[in-house]
Amino acid sequence: MPFKLIFISLCLITSMIQASTTNKKLIYMTSDINIPFWQIMSKGINSTSNSLGYDFEIYSADNSAKQELANTIKAIRNKVAGIIVSPTNSSACVTILKLAKKANIPVVIADIGTDSGEYVSYVSSNNKNGAYNIGKLLAKQMKALSYDKGTVGIIAIPQKRLNGQERTAGFMKALDEEKIKSADIKQLSKWTQEETYNYVKDMIEKYPNLKAIWLQTSNFYKAAINAINDSGKSNEVLLISFDAEPVFLDLIPKGDIIGAAMQQPYLMGQEAVIALDKHLKNEKVAKHIQLPILSISKENIEAELSTIKRNVLGIENK
After folding, report:
1. What's the pTM?
2. Which of 45, 201, 257, 295 sits a CA distance of 20 to 30 A from 232?
3. What kind and span of H or E run contains 6?
């Protein structure tokens, strides 16, 4: 082969290698970006991606497994540097990991988990311990009000998710230790305010001795409060939550919500990008990065305000 052709071929190969190794785009695949928790996590991902020199884009599945698969294929076709995924459920994550592995694209899982598969790191909250602590907080309040002979209703995220299983297990352990019984558990499937309202209203009607509702996700707090109030039980049924919304900074001190187990999604997003960046630089990465969950009530909310604003809610400290 003439020297000129060899030189051109080497240049082409070099440019291809450089293109593949200098791709600096990270994708965040989330189950539904309309949910505030994922929005806050995306802020943490975006902030750290920018500081480390990566481009960043969000692919939302809108809670659809079909769309999630399409998003995975899109990311692979775009030959992105890496994927951070909060899957629709733990079983669906297995497929995402298989496809990414075939394409040699590293994946960091954020929050929900997977049933199996290979990934760089799993960044999660200690869901079981967080739910246990908030269960203890609820039990303390119920006993103070002489409600401990009453029951607790649970509005749960899907129990196919690893984090959902852990939340239920931790909370039930706390109730069992305090000898408080659960009335019922309903799993969210439609993810609407109406669904939550109907679940809470039905529980109140079905279980006369119901004294508390635990939401395993915070974004439907309005529906739960409305259902309690419309049932004439505003002074009889307590409300407690997993995760938080900005309005909780007012609702918890007022007692409308007696407490919340607050994950730190902004911090989780940051840690996910850092893990992926280390992997891409051939540095050692912890297989499981587990962050603590804040157990917040009106007794400690003021002391934890700075951390809550940044790591939980993704807003500027004031």
Report:
1. 0.81
2. 295
3. helix 3-21
> Cα(315)–Cα(305) distance, rounded to whole angstroms?
11
Rounded CA-CA distance 129/80 in Å is: 35
Confidence of residue 161 (pLDDT cuts 50, 70, 90): confident
Residue 90 has pLDDT above 90, yes or no: no
Rounded distance between C-alpha atoms, residue 162 and residue 164, angstroms: 5
User: Which DSSP letter does residue 315 get?
Assistant: -
Order the strands of the 181-187 sheet from edge to edge: 181-187, 151-156, 210-215, 238-242, 259-262, 294-296
Give me the torsion for CA of 229, 230, 233, 235, rounded to 10°. 30
What residue type is 155 in one-letter code?
I
Q: Which of 293, 297, 213 minimizes the C-alpha distance to 259?
A: 297
CB 185 within 8 A of CB 168: yes
| Helix extents (H) in 61-208 | 65-77, 90-102, 127-144, 162-177, 193-206
